[in-house]
Structure formats: C-alpha cells, structure tokens
Specification:
The protein has 499 residues and is an alpha/beta fold. The protein is 38% helix and 21% strand. Strand 12, helix 9 and strand 13 form a beta-alpha-beta unit. The relative contact order is 0.14.
Length: 499
C-alpha cells in the first residue's frame, strides 16, 4: 500500500502523530488508493511558519510573473488530463467524462488566473485638492486557508488557490479526506511549474482536526470554505470572532422549473443531468423538479422511463451513467431521506434502494430515485440530501412555481424551461438564487463568471470570475501631495467652484 505525506516547509513530510487513514475507491471498497496523514494542530502550526516565509517571498514577486507560473500549471494539467481524471474517478467515483470536465475547469481557471496577473486593476482618480494625486491598488493579504469538499476534487481547489496565488498570497490547502490523492497531484503540478515551495502547504486530515486548526489559527487572516451549511456556521462564527476575511460556499436545494410551453425533450435531458450527474453530489444539483400541471403527467412518465434506464457502475468503465456515492455515511443519509419521503406521503416512483448485483456489491451505489406528489414544505423538498434523489412538485402557474422555488433556506442555482421570453426574463429577475439558467439545467458553471448563492448558501462572496480577486486581495489607497504646503482635507475650506 502506498503511503502519502503532507507537503510542509518545502518537503514531503509525515504527520507529527505518525497516524494515517486509508483512502478507498467508493466503487470498490476493497481497492485502497493509499494511506494519507491524519494531521493535527502541530502540523498546521509548522505549515503556518513555512507559509509566512513563503508569503514574504511571493508577495514581492510581480503579479504578471505569478500569473506566468499558473500558465505553466495549465499546460501541465492539459498534458496530464486523462491521468488526473482516472485518479480522480478512482477515489471519488464520478464517471471519467465528468472528471475530465473537472480537470478542464481547473485548466480554464489556470489560464484565466494567468491573465489576471496583468489585470489586478486599481483606480486613479482626481483629488479634491490642488497638486495632489490619488489612487487605489490591490495588494496581497497573507496566508489563505483553503478548505475544500470532495465533489469537485480539482475544480474547486483551483477556484480558490489560483486567484489566491495570483494576488500574492501563500496558501495552506486542506482537501477533503475523501479525495486526498487529487489534492496531492495538484500540489505536485504546482511545484513542477515552478511555484516556490513554501508558498504552498498541503495538510491532509479530518475537518474537525486539521480543518478546525486552520480556521482557528490567528496567523491565517483569510479562509475560503466550501462545505455544508452546518459546518459553515461554525466557520463563520469563528472567523467573525477572530476578525478574519471569510468566503463561504455552502448548501443548495436547487429547482428546475418546466412550464407548459417548454421543449420537453430538452427539459428531460436537463433534469436527468442536473439530478443524477455526479450522483446528485453537487451543490448545484437539481434536487427539486417543479412541473406546471399541463405537462406534469406526460413529463413525469418520460422522466421515470429514462431514469430507469440509467446504468450504475464504476466510473472508469464504458457505459456507466451514474457512479457511487462518496462513502457509506452518504448512502445511509440517502436511505434516511427515502424513509422521510415515504413517511411524508410522497410517492416513490423509482429507485429508493442500494445498487444490487455482483458488480455493485463492494461499492457505495444507490439507484437514481424519483418522488412524486411532493408538497412544498416537505422535508424532502426543503433539506439538502446530496444524493440521487429528485422531488417533483406540481404547480398551476408561473407565480406558484416561482414561490415554490424561493421558499427554501438556500439560494444557489435555479433553472427554467420555457418558450416565453417574458417568463424567462421574469425568472432571471425574480428567482431568489445566485445563478439562474434559462433552458439549461441547474448545473454548469463557467470559470470566467462569478459562482455563488444567497441566503444560507453563502455569505455574499463569489468564487470564479473577476470578483474572487477582490476577496483574495486588499484595497490600499495612496495619496501623493506635491503642493509643498499643508492642505487640510475634510476641513471646511473647500473651494471646488470659483467665487
């Protein structure tokens, strides 16, 4: 069995405790990817000491030069795309077509970040006083603590890390304990591309130990966290108490709305992909399907037929449509919601069971599941499941569809299928989400656009696009007075207009 280590202080080192955990293939739990460190507070402390030295070096490197390294990172990821995707599917489970897309998103983010090294714009503005210059510019903050989830093992770390690096920060990166190998591959690529070794620290381990140590460390001034809303609440309260800059990306309960005038074949493809892609383990996954009454019965029949034809299996094998859930705890959570839905009176139309058969016996497989006659307010309709479970709600009107969409505590993504341009633009305006798609599923973010949600999905910051660079940098204002006299701003002697 291969043993992997942390990357701290410019070297691959074992954890101080000497303890490791096994990383297993969720499609075949007898297949052990390797052993990875169970890091503790002392490992994080050493990472902070090293990252402090790395920041001192990296923050003085010109931003375009920082971007040049990320361009090389993108080149290396492009060359190794299939290798990375295969390793990612082995430890995370989703089919190779999806993990290749995950890698491509990292590549896109690398190239976009490289160009932003020449675009960290400030402002030059007129001063209200004579012979005085006024400007603002962006400067790095310090050490960024990056705590990432399992479902996009390459894309999400790159969303956080590459902008942080271009802005001049050092990074301490903790990947989810379910996908440590992909995190290791990412750090190896960064080092090969020429990133100074102490600029990046890789600390493996559990969230309640290594993750908490990163969040609570007083010398880590900014935290970027993606995960559950419950854990995000702890992260938020801790960072608020310690006056840290914080970006939270948390849960979702996303709805696809299908109106009576929609292209039903197109909407069907969107519902299948949105609900069961990545086995429903996306924060943007389609967890609710809101159908207008005129097409409800017909569309539901089409959907159930197609869902029953989806093939469960190892994501590295041809023909697999739906891979495994990430671990046994995820399977048990989905099973609990199957019981909840039936107790609430919803109709279980298909799925609702673990995958059966010899090929699935050693994996965390669960059948794609559809509940009908789900009512607004059911727990099944309100709570994030993070699995292949779709709840169908019938509505009479556009107003009712919009009300159902908005009546949850989350606000990440939404989707509407309609041929009515007026309804489409109403949706863009009225659906209470950070992202709304028209005639497309609830999933499918692009690297050059901001990503994030409202309400309990996040705290107002965005990942991706141009806005994330504001999060990972600080605005500083500079004044240069060359008048040779004391000019007193904010004193009542303003002479902006002639007498």
């Amino acid at each position: 069995m291969k043993r992997f280590n942390n990357f701290i202080g410019g070297a691959w080192v074992p954890p101080d405790s000497g303890d490791y955990f096994e990383n297993r293939n969720p499609a075949d739990k007898t297949d052990i990817v390797g052993e990875f460190p169970l890091s503790q507070v002392t490992d994080v402390e050493r990472a902070v000491q090293s990252a402090t030295r790395g920041f001192a070096q990296w923050s003085r490197t010109p931003a375009p030069a920082r971007g040049d390294i990320l361009r090389v990172v993108g080149d290396l990821m492009s060359k190794r795309k299939d290798e990375i995707a295969n390793g990612m599917t082995r430890e995370m489970g989703k089919p190779l077509a999806e993990t290749r897309g995950d890698v491509q998103e990292g590549i896109d983010t690398a190239y976009y970040a490289a160009s932003e090294g020449r675009r960290l714009f400030g402002h030059t503005v007129p001063s209200e006083l004579r012979n005085k210059w006024a400007m603002s510019y962006r400067r790095p903050i310090g050490i960024a603590g990056l705590i990432c989830p399992f479902n996009f093992p390459m894309a999400i770390p790159t969303w956080k890390m590459f902008p942080a690096l271009v802005c001049g920060n050092a990074c301490i990166f903790k990947p989810a304990e379910d996908v440590p190998h992909t995190g290791t591959m990412l750090v190896e690529i960064l080092l090969e591309a020429g990133l100074p070794p102490e600029v990046i620290q890789l600390v493996h381990g559990r969230g309640e130990e290594a993750g908490a140590a990163i969040v609570e460390h007083p010398q880590i001034p900014l935290i970027s966290f993606t995960g559950s809303t419950d854990v995000g609440s702890y992260v938020g309260s801790t960072c608020g108490r310690m006056h840290k800059r914080l970006s939270l990306e948390m849960g979702g309960k996303n709805a696809q709305i299908v109106m009576d005038d929609a292209d039903l074949d197109l909407a069907l493809e969107g519902a299948l992909w949105g609900a069961f892609g990545t086995t429903g383990q996306r924060c943007t996954a389609t967890s609710r399907l809101i159908l207008q009454k005129g097409i409800h019965d017909r569309f539901l029949g089409m959907l159930v037929d197609k869902t029953r034809s989806l093939k469960l299996g190892d994501g590295r094998k041809d023909g697999t449509d739906v891979g495994p859930l990430i671990n046994e705890a995820a399977v048990e959570k989905v099973e609990r919601y199957i019981d909840i839905g039936q107790a609430e009176g919803a109709d279980l139309l298909c799925g609702g069971r673990r995958g059966e058969g010899r090929a699935l016996a050693d994996g965390n497989f669960f059948e794609p599941t559809i509940f009908a006659r789900v009512e607004a307010g059911f727990r099944l309709e309100q709570e994030e499941i993070f699995g292949p479970v779709l709840s169908v709600v019938r509505v009479s009107s556009t107003d009712e569809a919009f009300a159902v969409n908005n009546d949850v505590k989350y606000g990440l993504s939404s989707s509407i299928y309609t041929a009515n341009v007026n309804v489409a633009f109403r949706a863009l305006n009225e659906l209470d989400n950070g992202i709304t798609y028209v005639n497309a599923p609830t999933i499918g973010a692009e690297a050059h656009l901001p990503f994030g949600g409202v309400k309990q999905t996040g705290n107002g910051h965005r990942e991706g696009g141009w806005q994330v660079y504001d999060f990972f940098s600080e605005t500083k204002v500079g004044y240069a007075d060359f008048s040779g006299t004391l000019q007193r701003a904010q004193i009542d002697n303003y002479r902006g207009t002639p007498d």
